Model the fold of this input.
Amino acid sequence: MVPVSFAPFEFAGEELVLTEGRTLYWPRERALLVADLHLEKASFYATTGQFLPPYDSRETLERLSEEIRLTDARRVITLGDNFHDSAGVDRLEPHAAGMLAALTRATDWVWITGNHDPQLKKKLGGTLAKEVELGGFILRHIARKGETRPEISGHFHPRLQLKIRRRAIRRPCAVVARRADGARIVMPAFGALTGGMDAGDPAILKALQPANTIDAVVPTRGKLATFPLWRAAA
Done:
């Protein structure tokens, strides 16, 4: 059973659950969708002389393991940019590599490749794919402008940026586009060292056309807070 603290919502005729942990759970498929892990980002930057704490992969995988536990997912589908570069899998330190191997053995795991890791190596557990069609949904890394089928993607790392009582608030969010005959979602980035793009950035709004409405969506305390980003002219 999905914990009551998670926020369910209707999407293209299906009930999905957006978690506060920046994942999307699909109960009918028992599938957990997650975007932009960017594993081994710190080790990639180390090769250029920029040294960051080298434990980002451990942190990301620990959080992902907890999301799998909380949702009781039997399938995991990543939405691209799984590693910060295609060679990142070779830089995984033994502890993180063991964690990843255990997760891919315990679930039906599908890696959708992204622009950061287009040549992801098959030595990983699970299955590699450029995109996946599941239950009438298209799952891919980058939203395709003009797509009319239900689509779930990543890539943009959307963040909601607000000012409340002179305080700047920035939170990872999903961006949901709807029209009369369909809907699309851009997922927030999951990785420990991933930055973010303003959810209302023109690049995101353009990628999600055609649409009637586009909203930033943030789960909080078992509910969804929705913030309008764009509306079609009347």
